[in-house]
Amino acid sequence: NLIPPTPVGPHFTECISREQETFRCWWSPGGFHNLSFPGALRVFYLKKDSPNSEWKECPEYSHLKRECFFDVNHTSVWIPYCMQLRGQNNVTYLDEDYCFTVENIVRPDPPVSLNWTLLNISPSGLSYDVMVNWEPPPSADVGAGWMRIEYEIQYTERNTTNWEALEMQPHTQQTIYGLQIGKEYEVHIRCRMQAFVKFGEFSDSVFIQVTEIPSQDSNFPFKLALIFGVLGILILILLIGISQQPRLMMILLPPVPAPKIKGIDPELLKKGKLDELNFILSGGGMGGLSTYAPDFYQDEPWVEFIEVDAEDADAAEKEENQGSDTQRLLDPPQPVSHHMNTGCANAVSFPDDDSGRASCYDPDLHDQDTLMLMATLLPGQPEDGEDSFDVVERAPVIERSERPLVQTQTGGPQTWLNTDFYAQVSNVMPSGGVVLSPGQQLRFQESTSAAEDEAQKKGKGSEDSEEKTQKELQFQLLVVDPEGSGYTTESNARQISTPPNTPMPGSGYQTIHPQPVETKPAATAENNQSPYILPDSPQSQFFAPVADYTVVQEVDSQHSLLLNPPPRQSPPPCLPHHPTKALAAMPVGYVTPDLLGNLSP
Amino acid sequence: MPGSIRPVSVVWVVLVCLLFCSRLLSVGAAPICTNAQAGCHALSLANLFDRVIQHSARMHGISNDLHSEFEQYFLPSKNQIGRVSRNCHTSTIFTPNGKENAQRMARQELTEVILKLLVAWRDPLWHFHQSIAHHHDFNNFSANKALEMSDMVHELRKGVEKVAEKMQMMGIISNSVSSLASPEALLPSDSAEWRLMKDYDLLYCFRRDSNKVQNYLKILKCRIVPEHGC
């Protein structure tokens, strides 16, 4: 309904009833300014309550406001009213009468006494609900049932005009849900008659704001939990401390498994007691150990089952030597220089479940702690070559120039099986040396010569403490006699590196003299060739044979772990990266954490 | 075996009848009682009033909706009243036109007025619904509303009669037989006037009258049982 832009004449702006008992009408002169003075226009109304009703003039004028007020006596509901504006000369200015019924022009007054109460705060502490309540407008006679009003609440954030309207309802209270903590809200309300269209004016706004309150509730469970926790701990401590029940202690504080070596007091295995352990392991002399060794090795079934295997994996390499190897192995009188890795001289190396590897621990070597362990000489391993392994004996005590010939054979009850370090013999050199690992041949060959030299030197100068300190190559050459297979082994298991002061030989190694004491002249014979297990490179023996276990002796410049560091006689300048000192205290088979640091090049 | 079926079927029929009739009887056997006698519902007067008031409010709402629809489609004029060409057929019924008038009127009279109004609209609304239903201009929604409106008038009248009965039993209003016995007697003689009304006028008149009924009922309630929600 667009109002045409023609000059508008006098007209009624609006008629409103506030309580359905009285009503007011306002008019405007429009564009006719000559009619704006008071009294220029007059209001006439027609009340169609009877067929012959007439036009009457406004019962009560208010010229200032241009308002015509109809009081209770002149107001009738449900009866059509028609209004007219007339000029002084009874000129009617309206095209058509302005007609209405009172119930249709009701706009109730706004409700009063608007206020709010906090209902609750959400558990997250971010939002809350509010109950808003008010009173119906006093002018509306709701109590008598004359007016039935429904209310509409609107709210918005303060200083915004994004009003949100709630659903209309006839009660005098309503809940606003989901207001946010910290924000300020503005709320106002208006009302209208039920089933009618026209709303009254909005009430004055009230403001709602709830700031964060540090709730006590959140602390409460925390305190409770704290108290309970402390109580529980106290009870536990009481239980443990007072009762001292071994079973309970077992359950609550299970003991940490300690290293075990069968037959050895765990006390000795604790840190710092290597000396004693060494001593014991070495048998305290021969005697002690022997008590162990036979038991061990006799009980080990696997020992018995190692047999000469002519079909080695590396048969290709060793084929050529195979025959000779075998022969050598089987031929006791030959000065076979077997490559031997003497592993644990003491038969401490038994497979133990506790330890990661069977540790060969030579008490004599306790200072140096690098017991080289001997791999079991697996019979049948084809001989590799001359210079596969060299066992270099560094035992200062070695008076004889001969190189010890070391043979180890598995399978005997007295076999010193180096259960700690397994060396698989892949080849037997013509000279009698035993290649312990085919893969490491080259390596050994490389260092063989050097090793030989070194060994020679060492053999003489065992008191070379510097050397010793540099490389704690200790190993023992075990000579083990298989069950009368005819091997003669030179029981020159010696410790290669020992401090000068330590009594060498006797305690150094265990030599099991094989029954057929046909110690060959091999002991001497090897001098020349002396397949040595490089003392300096104990790792060599570990390379080949050790399938699972080995000892890291050094870490070279390339940060590779040298299981048998290449033998270097040269003074430190040449070997800046062989801090053998570091290896000083390394126990055979173990690298304790404090020694680990020593491994760094 | 037809021979054995007959007695069986007879038995079935008897059983069904018993069930059905017992249900019917039980439904009918619930008069409004003043005392909490066994076997009848004792609804309070306030409760009854609330029900009829709600009903009348709903009726008025529907009439308002229909009227707005009509106005929207057929008479989009800013001045809705001016178009009323003739008076409503219920104009002859004397109704209080203001609050004081309604409050001053005797309860019995007021009740009678209400009943008169409701009775007067029963037929016109029915015909209105019929005319709308057959008129292609109106959708089903409007026709359904008209039907609902017509039914509501009927129901509301019964409800108000029940209220009046209760009030009579309670002694609030006198036992005036003429007011309730034959409501049809209350109709003005020229009741056929409504047939001449146009649909829109009819709606307009009904909207006004439903508002009247609603108001009168509310006033009556707040005068008689003011304790609940006045």
UniProtKB/TrEMBL annotation, chain A:
Keywords: Cell membrane, Disulfide bond, Endocytosis, Glycoprotein, Membrane, Phosphoprotein, Receptor, Secreted, Signal, Transmembrane, Transmembrane helix. It is a single-pass type I membrane protein. The keyword RNA-binding does not apply. GO terms for molecular function: cytokine receptor activity. Residues 110-214 form the Fibronectin type-III domain. Its main location: membrane. Coiled coil: none annotated. One of its GO terms (cellular component) is external side of plasma membrane. InterPro entries: FN3_dom (IPR003961), FN3_sf (IPR036116), GHBP (IPR025871), Growth/epo_recpt_lig-bind (IPR015152), Ig-like_fold (IPR013783), Long_hematopoietin_rcpt_CS (IPR003528). The keyword Signal applies. Residues 314-349, 445-470 are annotated as: Disordered. Residues 454-470 have a biased composition (Basic and acidic residues). Pfam families: EpoR_lig-bind, GHBP. It is found in: Cell membrane; Secreted. One of its GO terms (biological process) is endocytosis. The chain crosses the membrane at residues 220-242. Belongs to the type I cytokine receptor family. Type 1 subfamily. This is Growth hormone receptor. It comes from Sparus aurata.
UniProtKB/TrEMBL annotation, chain B:
It is found in: Secreted. The keyword Signal applies. Its main location: secreted. One of its GO terms (molecular function) is hormone activity. Gene3D superfamilies: 1.20.1250.10. GO terms for biological process: positive regulation of receptor signaling pathway via JAK-STAT; response to nutrient levels. GO terms for cellular component: extracellular space. Residues 1-29 form the signal peptide. The keyword Hydrolase does not apply. Keywords: Disulfide bond, Hormone, Secreted, Signal. SUPFAM superfamilies: 4-helical cytokines. PANTHER family: PROLACTIN LIKE (PTHR11417:SF33), SOMATOTROPIN,PROLACTIN (PTHR11417). Belongs to the somatotropin/prolactin family. This is Prolactin 2.
